[in-house]
Specification:
With 218 residues, the chain is an all-alpha fold. It is 82% helix and 0% strand. α2 packs antiparallel against α3, α6 packs antiparallel against α8 and α6 packs parallel to α9. It is globular, with a radius of gyration of 17 Å. 37% of the residues are buried. The mean pLDDT is 89.
């Protein structure tokens, strides 16, 4: 599994197709946090929101790097579709972790903040919520599920709008709304961690659904 993740990470790195979501994320963080002096709860909520579309983009891009024939060879070498799918999720998570590291540090450079352990933990949890949600959307809107990418793009946009605007329903919307008005990271940490567990379940469900569809098409 480690070798498979390393292979996929290298393929995406050499393709340079990670650059667009990376530059989009850095640009959004710079715009949203430049000269910011407010509480880090709201700042990290903005950073997490910026990570959401970028994680979708990275996941879809990673799955779309190889054509059907090449992916079939990778599946045979790996031993199963599930191993390849899990390696894909692991690779997407690694790229999201790199973006998350930048998302934790850049607001401290662009604005005036005092970082505490609770702020750091909250920033990680908030970004993981959006990363897991984005990866789940990316999986169900990938070429593994949709052969016509035009339909996949429309669905991805609809799902992004739903998770961002679904008041009281979407964990992402609940988290962003709560953090924008919260003033203390320690108080916001427990409910954010609960939402993180929910989004981890969403990602697991997206993996299971994608695997079922992939096996049926195989």
């Amino acid at each position: 599994m480690i070798a498979l993740v390393g292979y996929m990470f290298t393929v995406l790195l050499l393709s340079q197709r990670y650059l667009t979501p990376l530059l989009l994320f850095l640009g959004l963080v710079a715009v949203l946090t430049s000269s910011d002096t407010g509480p880090l709860t709201a700042t990290y909520a903005s950073v997490a929101g910026a990570l959401l579309p970028c994680s979708v983009w990275l996941t879809v891009t990673l799955i779309g790097l190889e054509d059907h024939a090449h992916r079939s060879i990778v599946v045979v070498s790996a031993g199963s579709h599930l191993r390849v799918l899990l390696a894909t999720v692991g690779t997407a998570a690694m790229w999201c972790l790199l973006l998350m590291a930048a998302g934790l540090v850049l607001p401290l450079m662009f604005g005036a903040h005092t970082l505490g352990l609770a702020d750091l933990a909250l920033g990680i949890a908030a970004q993981l919520i959006c990363a897991f949600t984005g990866m789940a959307i990316g999986l169900v809107c990938s070429r593994l599920v949709f052969r016509r990418q035009g339909y996949a793009l429309i669905l991805a946009l609809v799902l992004l709008a739903a998770v961002l605007l679904g008041k009281g329903v979407s964990p992402v919307n609940i988290m962003l709304t709560h953090l924008q008005s919260a003033s203390d990271s320690a108080d916001a940490l427990a409910p954010t961690a609960a939402l993180l567990a929910v989004t981890a379940g969403f990602l697991a469900a997206a993996v299971a659904m994608t695997q079922a569809i992939t096996r049926r098409k195989a």
